[in-house]
Amino acid sequence: MIRVLIADDEDMIRTALAALLRLEDDLEVVAECRDGESALAEAERLRPDVCLLDLEMPGLDGVDTAARILRSVPSRCVIVTRHARPGVLRRALGAGVDGFLPKSRPADDVAAVIREVAAGRRYVDPEIAADALSDERSPLTDRELDVLRAGARGETVAEIAAALHLSAGTVRNHVSSVLGKLGLASRQQATIHARERGWI
């Protein structure tokens, strides 16, 4: 039996998927979790073979949850998402995730991917993989990316400057350059844009 943990904050999706996977002879759903923190706790307690994690969860997202699970549990992780952006795929693979597929796939496909991953293979949805390969490279310099990273949680210019050992004026110049290159109006928009593409 392949022991599976499911984490998804949407109750209907989580319970429906769990019910469908329980119909499979070789799969046992051992836990259903509403968020990343509880998925991490249950994974450490139950040590499932495969953790099926929704990307968009409150608090810890699916990739952060997977990274933390994989540091302490000999499990394998599959990310499912409604919005499969190429940058997120790169981030997930960098965290050690073994599977990545859209939520639009039927339950039979999800079960097949769980089996693949449990057998030690990696699975990435072909469309998502093609998008990731064709995604553009970052036009931003390393220092501009550092500024976005340092301000990713809404830090002030002064806080970013202190963290990077730069002057506030230099930080403002980098932010201005980033916004000009990306054609965006705010640092927050630039951070979201860079995250979605896997630049930060």
TrEMBL record:
The keyword Mitochondrion does not apply. Residues 133-198 form the HTH luxR-type domain. PROSITE patterns: HTH_LUXR_1 (PS00622), HTH_LUXR_2 (PS50043), RESPONSE_REGULATORY (PS50110). SUPFAM superfamilies: C-terminal effector domain of the bipartite response regulators, CheY-like. InterPro entries: CheY-like_superfamily, Sig_transdc_resp-reg_C-effctor, Sig_transdc_resp-reg_receiver, Tscrpt_reg_LuxR_C, WalR-like. The keyword DNA-binding applies. Residues 3-118 form the Response regulatory domain. Keywords: DNA-binding, Phosphoprotein. One of its GO terms (molecular function) is DNA binding. GO terms for biological process: phosphorelay signal transduction system; regulation of DNA-templated transcription. The modification 4-aspartylphosphate is found at D54. This is Two-component system response regulator DesR. It comes from Microbacterium proteolyticum.
